[in-house]
User: Fold these one by one.
Assistant:
Number 1:
Amino acid sequence: MKAFRGQMLAALILLFLPLSPVLAQRKKIIVDQDARGPASTDMQSILMFAQSPDVEVLGITLVSGDQWVKEEAAHTLRALEIAGRSDIPVLLGAEYPLVNSKEESEAWERQYGELAFKGAWTPRLYHPPDVVPELPEGNPKTKPRDEHAVDFIIRMVRTYPNEVILWAGGPLTNIALAIRKDPQVVSLARELVLMGSGFNVDKGGIHRINGRREFNWWFDPEAVRIVMSAPWKKITITPVDISVKTFLSDEIKAAIAKSDTPLARYHTQFAHGSYMWDEIAAAAVLDPSIITRQQELYVNIDIDHGAGYGQTIFVEKQVKVPSWWKLATVQFDLDTRKFYDLYIRLMSQPAPRPVEARGRN
Amino acid sequence: MKAFRGQMLAALILLFLPLSPVLAQRKKIIVDQDARGPASTDMQSILMFAQSPDVEVLGITLVSGDQWVKEEAAHTLRALEIAGRSDIPVLLGAEYPLVNSKEESEAWERQYGELAFKGAWTPRLYHPPDVVPELPEGNPKTKPRDEHAVDFIIRMVRTYPNEVILWAGGPLTNIALAIRKDPQVVSLARELVLMGSGFNVDKGGIHRINGRREFNWWFDPEAVRIVMSAPWKKITITPVDISVKTFLSDEIKAAIAKSDTPLARYHTQFAHGSYMWDEIAAAAVLDPSIITRQQELYVNIDIDHGAGYGQTIFVEKQVKVPSWWKLATVQFDLDTRKFYDLYIRLMSQPAPRPVEARGRN
Amino acid sequence: MKAFRGQMLAALILLFLPLSPVLAQRKKIIVDQDARGPASTDMQSILMFAQSPDVEVLGITLVSGDQWVKEEAAHTLRALEIAGRSDIPVLLGAEYPLVNSKEESEAWERQYGELAFKGAWTPRLYHPPDVVPELPEGNPKTKPRDEHAVDFIIRMVRTYPNEVILWAGGPLTNIALAIRKDPQVVSLARELVLMGSGFNVDKGGIHRINGRREFNWWFDPEAVRIVMSAPWKKITITPVDISVKTFLSDEIKAAIAKSDTPLARYHTQFAHGSYMWDEIAAAAVLDPSIITRQQELYVNIDIDHGAGYGQTIFVEKQVKVPSWWKLATVQFDLDTRKFYDLYIRLMSQPAPRPVEARGRN
Amino acid sequence: MKAFRGQMLAALILLFLPLSPVLAQRKKIIVDQDARGPASTDMQSILMFAQSPDVEVLGITLVSGDQWVKEEAAHTLRALEIAGRSDIPVLLGAEYPLVNSKEESEAWERQYGELAFKGAWTPRLYHPPDVVPELPEGNPKTKPRDEHAVDFIIRMVRTYPNEVILWAGGPLTNIALAIRKDPQVVSLARELVLMGSGFNVDKGGIHRINGRREFNWWFDPEAVRIVMSAPWKKITITPVDISVKTFLSDEIKAAIAKSDTPLARYHTQFAHGSYMWDEIAAAAVLDPSIITRQQELYVNIDIDHGAGYGQTIFVEKQVKVPSWWKLATVQFDLDTRKFYDLYIRLMSQPAPRPVEARGRN
């Protein structure tokens, strides 16, 4: 009888564990990404979240950008397999940006100069959207969910009102579509955090010394206009200006290579020197103290299809502007030592037990 | 015996009627509308389809435009109740256009002159999007379906590949969202038919003598750019230029008033003199011979947010243009007598038995 | 003594003849033209003024447009020699439009479709601006004045304040430059009359069925913006909409061919069937009763460099607009019989005695 | 006797020095300015040239910008009187920019946020263009020349082909008008040097942390497009990015205050702490070694009238661009010590003998 009671108690504890204060405080996050693979800034940011015990990744919603969405799905599924986190749902989202197109971008380049990087449209890397080449890191065995990324976003913010952080490391097409399909997404989300935009920086953008033409925002400017004009509770932006203060150096790679996890091996084999665009945006959610200087600004994007198409526009907080301008907290400096330490720890440590394994069974 | 055979034959005919070539040829149509009510050009076009034995209305997908989408749903449900066609699914779609907004339109008007009509944003008619005033024609007892208009469109074109006519009488927000959520909508649809745009006409638009600023297209220009740049099998356009050649006169109203159906009474009470914008677009599906002059043109829309925002742009077929321009068949003249006759007949006759009642039981 | 008085009187009369009521009423006009030759609509309008006893042509100021300005000068000088009006000063003006360029227009065409006519930039007719080919009508012996067209315009409106009609049959570059060099040109001129713009018409423009892209205005849109935003006492516009109601037919040519003047012979040899764009604008100055319908509208031009670049924009008079919109009287219909009669008479009759010959000597 | 000969020789050398090879190499310069007074960055740059023995200032051509052109003329004449250089011609130029206007700028600000400085249009400083308030430094006794600035520019480059440096410290309206009136200005000038534009800098512009909206270029964007698209032999740009590395400090003022010239007293009384925008551009002509880092870039301006209107656009030299983009040498860093020393020396020393006094008499 006592044994039975003990078993009952254990069962009850397990049963209610997800509701315990500790776990209830884990941040619920949807990671919306244009997840180039293997081992890009996109993928590393996904893996940081997957490796962190401090967030519950509700799902990874993919969007074309750095690559086409189907190829991204393969890389993401494979990376999660390697990290032992196939419990995290992966969902396919928008294949094309709202209005921008490969063809329009080529006409634009003839007028204003060739872009240095165009993601899935980059000529030297181009293949049709349905093609998924063999993956150097091995093809995945797992599959994406059947649900569309846009519907998943809507369902999650409705399931967990005021709890979900929408974290966007790619073009904002999925989030724009979700807003326009269900306008309440905006009021139901807890916060929007994104890597995108550029202010006054002479590198890190796709138009070379013009840092205001940042890839994520340029790929789908109209989506940015939709998303950035919506009345979110809070918007946090990691712009190019802070990205270029970081670098995934050989030293960082070497520190992670000391670990013998499959993930660390994947990192060692495929990661390469690069600004750590999305990793900063991820780190700032996991440990906000990493950011040492940020500023509230009105931020949006130029959507006229001339010289300025896809460039960040911004105004100081004290300036009177129409209500479609929204204030965002823009990160401008960080504690790189703290940031690199967090990154190395997350990429080196064993995967956390998935939520289901710990609480839901 | 002979009589029995005759009865058997009749029974067999009835039994297999739904499968007969005649019914199999009934056009499957999704009616996408910004259905102002009661008894507007929007609603009359819906009722023409509902009254016609020649089409199978898969559903009516609503979109904000002439009114907010929730108010439109009430009017549409009520009109279908009156017409005895509550079997037709009604589905709510986009509440807001993609990028355009009431606020932006007001800033635009301060620069380029007040617009004569702005649909749900018209100052003298304005109320918030969630408000549904009491309906003069009586509030509906039926409800819209739970499915979102965008998902319904996607599901139907996938259920009936190459069979579904997407017929759009309002802003193109729903169809644009459907395309961007599922790019295959374009190749799976049979045809796109729409009322919208304006060419060289000095009335019928919302900017008065400038007929190129047509309401449907102006309300969501970016949606038009998305939809009109997609590779549909066929695009048919009913522009303002042909609309203004028609008028819902007292004579037409009197002819319909001779009928004693609930629908005819509704028409008599609420319909008013107006160009018959959407009724032409509906009639041309039901009887293409009504159109007496049409022209293939490249047609799209100006989406720069200056003087031209929302204006139709167009080029002749023989001109070399980039591939984002698509050819559309644009209607420029009609046989008004034939058109009015069809309209009077449809609005006067009893409702056809719903599809389910005739074939599916 | 009496004889002396008589002589004195005669001398005084001769002295003050230019100020006599009759002559004082002759309208002083500067004809600003992109004078293609021989015998184009441009040249015919110049010749109508040169042939008319009702106007005093202060000078012909040339501007690149239909041809380069230097080639136009040769044709104009020759035409005036043939008409016996080499007393009229011919002055060279702007060689290039303010901002628009051949190169930009070619990039535009790649996006929005080839233009049917581009004046001096038309590929099949192109030669560099300094080249003046041999003239089929014979090369001129006279020369243009040394003064620049812009300075001549400024000097004349200052010499004859409130008397000078600025009549523009070509791009508005010269007038825009004059305004910006001397802002008082606007208040000192009596009236601005111009051929340009298009409203709702499916022919007569350079973009084929899009009549709003009219050549004169398209060639230098920024000049139009400058000129049309200035506070002239009066602006009168002859748009494409009225031009296409006329035609220089074989009958008209035959009627003129009955005359045996050098001018009539020139007309017979070189004039060809065409809308009579500029001839209407000239006729309406000479006999305003030719115009049977005109409307006051706010008229300006789209100067964003996208789809709408160079298109006429307009708003009705009753609409509230910012003060940069100015009201213009736009001609929409005419008495073609009266117009053709005037044209035939002017082109058939002998040249009027030059002003100098009648009054100033 | 020998001593006397020596003195004679010295006197003769002094006498004929203006004709010596050394002086023949004095750079001929036209200083085109929006010369706010008293003692602004505009005026200081004029005075640097006026004080320098190394340049021959052919004339100062004024243009509205920081103030209206008539008020600027009064300040400039007065400053030259104080400096003892009334021999330098002062010429009035454009009163208004080509297309931009106070009214348009106010509509723009309502959309994109109030500008911090608008020159003659700044609300707190505004008066009509014809008003010239009493000057705190005393009203001038001298007068501007009768010739228009535009004509002076044309005449000078024709008088001294390939010798004249067009130096522009204000909006480019005058130079744009000169080019369009006489296209040969471009090939006849020796070089274009200008203060204007901004790249990646978070101060120094008129839209606060957006340094790409620099006052001179913003005031007349279309003029910049015209001037920057022309095939000059050489274009040198002093952008905001380098301006903000300097400051007219109290120390510099104190150093100049040690001098007892009228000019030094004027400086002491009226100069105030400020970035030294135009002084750098002047210094770099007088002593190019002051600039320590410069880069060749394609530079132009956004002239669509939306969010980007008046912003600098630029592309690296190695990027393929259409021929309307021209390469400019853009200054990015300087030797501030050397710069301040030059400035202090020029503002402290006695005026050089005018050219006429030294050489032409």
Number 2:
Amino acid sequence: MAQTLDDLPPRAALAEIARDFHARGWMAGTAGNLSARADDEHFWITASGKPKGRLDELDFLLVRVRDGEVVERVRPDNKPSAETAIHRALYALFPGARACLHGHIVEAAVAANRAKKGAKSLRLPAIEMIKGFDIWRQNPKVELPLFENHLDVAKIARDIETRFKKTKPDVTALMIRAHGPTVWGANLQEVYNRFEILDYLLRYQAQARPR
Amino acid sequence: MAQTLDDLPPRAALAEIARDFHARGWMAGTAGNLSARADDEHFWITASGKPKGRLDELDFLLVRVRDGEVVERVRPDNKPSAETAIHRALYALFPGARACLHGHIVEAAVAANRAKKGAKSLRLPAIEMIKGFDIWRQNPKVELPLFENHLDVAKIARDIETRFKKTKPDVTALMIRAHGPTVWGANLQEVYNRFEILDYLLRYQAQARPR
Amino acid sequence: MAQTLDDLPPRAALAEIARDFHARGWMAGTAGNLSARADDEHFWITASGKPKGRLDELDFLLVRVRDGEVVERVRPDNKPSAETAIHRALYALFPGARACLHGHIVEAAVAANRAKKGAKSLRLPAIEMIKGFDIWRQNPKVELPLFENHLDVAKIARDIETRFKKTKPDVTALMIRAHGPTVWGANLQEVYNRFEILDYLLRYQAQARPR
Amino acid sequence: MAQTLDDLPPRAALAEIARDFHARGWMAGTAGNLSARADDEHFWITASGKPKGRLDELDFLLVRVRDGEVVERVRPDNKPSAETAIHRALYALFPGARACLHGHIVEAAVAANRAKKGAKSLRLPAIEMIKGFDIWRQNPKVELPLFENHLDVAKIARDIETRFKKTKPDVTALMIRAHGPTVWGANLQEVYNRFEILDYLLRYQAQARPR
């Protein structure tokens, strides 16, 4: 077994993550989308509408960060994920981001649903696991950015862009309400780890009683 | 691995789905039944009373849509699923339906149990995942048809037939109260995907607090 | 794959069930015990204190129903399960019982904990899945026998014997409070199926709101 | 398959446990740390910051109980787990402890969160499963030691040391609030078994209604 996901070719790693996330119920149906930077200007992203437990290395498209142009596609009828705009926004905002994973987690949606209407963020529980986001403070007050879901994905992407240009988030993650978490980071293994950590934190929050 | 379930022979695909659903707890004991059209007039359906984690390609019977006649059975003592009448009703109602999956999900039964007595449908949560049913509206109001459970399966089938002849459902799925979901669709992969999606939606509903 | 568990030699089948139940969390630590009749007078039962995910065919002892005498043991230091007395009681009471499975399920213990103090049974939910216990009635009122847990296992066995000599249970299963379910039946596959079904019914009950 | 984890070389066994715990969600991200004594004076412990589903036998360091000195490391840039101090404290306190496992379990954190502020222990439910901690009493009152979480791990280790020097705990386990359980014991298989048992007990407690 590879020591980290980054020891695999990026598309092989993404296909492995897709099978893993699908088996956990985080990519039900064809939901979710995964990407990794190929170079500073481009990233590989999952093709749209494919069952995520069955991807192979040909089911990724190379997309240009700047304008979303598809630069390479192996299977001619593959289309980039409908949420490519969100990945583009994050890669443009955070030059250090080399990978970006988005899935759907029932408990995450349940936890987010408890936030007040219009709330811009969800306070993450101040439990040990939060160190996985590289936060090393006693009883940290960490906010997970919350975004409203829109049918028009471009609008979600613009909201992310507008907000994060003004204010850097506390964590390399965000939650779209009634939808799911997106996590980005310096390499695939880090983003995979933090996706697990965010799942843990939000499952905790969905179950814990307010004190 | 096959790119989609439809790249496999139908009975091999159904046996694979049965193992998958059994492992997830959706086919406890010998519960549930799966079918796929062989041609416009006939469908393959799981034999009755078999442990669903152990089916092979010989555990399916070829049944005629029109009258339920068993046209082919490889193992002579195999009987078609007790709920064949429901599959027949759906294939007769929806000529485009090429596959039909029925299982039992604890959380689906819990969610349905919260609907008022006599309610004819359950409002699905207006979350992103609903796009998996090809619904592309902001805050969609989508109703999952609810049917009462009867010991006499033929009565459930007639109820489905009567209601759907009058009113097309919002989604290619229904829920039998105190029983389980049934999903149909244009091909096996689509129906498999939507079964996962319905599971997701109903698990969300079983946990989410009313707002 | 074998078509049913009964196509395997009994000890191989029991070892396979043990791995399966362990993986589901139903045999945490070394908890639980599984048996199958070898002939009318004897049954094979799991050795005591073994991790249940790691049993092989040598980890079973042949025990005489009548007096609990160990008739055969392959590994000399293996001892029969501490709950052998319960298996003996059930095989003596029900000559048709050819297998008996006992595990621990968190949700089953949670559901049983909701029964009133001193209650002799737990009403099972009248949902479709109950047909797996061969109950074919509309809205059946089915009681799962409840027994108090005692440190002295022999006392549990006597309670079972005393009660079932007077009254046959509605189902081939019982629940020991604060402990776990025991299921018996005509063959290994049937008992395995019904264990899954009881798990389903009690998980439903642990989650469903009273109506 | 090995009959018990102790039939494997210690580092191979720890790597296997790490994959197992990761797959169950008990080592999300790089959380958790596992150790086994090599001899009376030293123990092998997981390297810090590695994804726990991908460890191999080179990802362990040999640490001296007395002063925490790293005596052997195969991969030169591996560092011992940040929580090595806790393992050292436990090995120093309990000469019979040969292994020590620490993970993070959502339900355990939820259960611990229900204890009163400042509570020094959590009453474990008096259910059958508690026998797995070698407690053989009817309705036993067993307390799981609770420790506050501190950013400074050395402080947690000192708290453990101070308390356990005065009072031996009821069980070979403790819980760090908002963090996770730690279990130690006479051999790897016993500790593995008891980790499963503690998970069971705390999942029960997180779900059971107070009576």
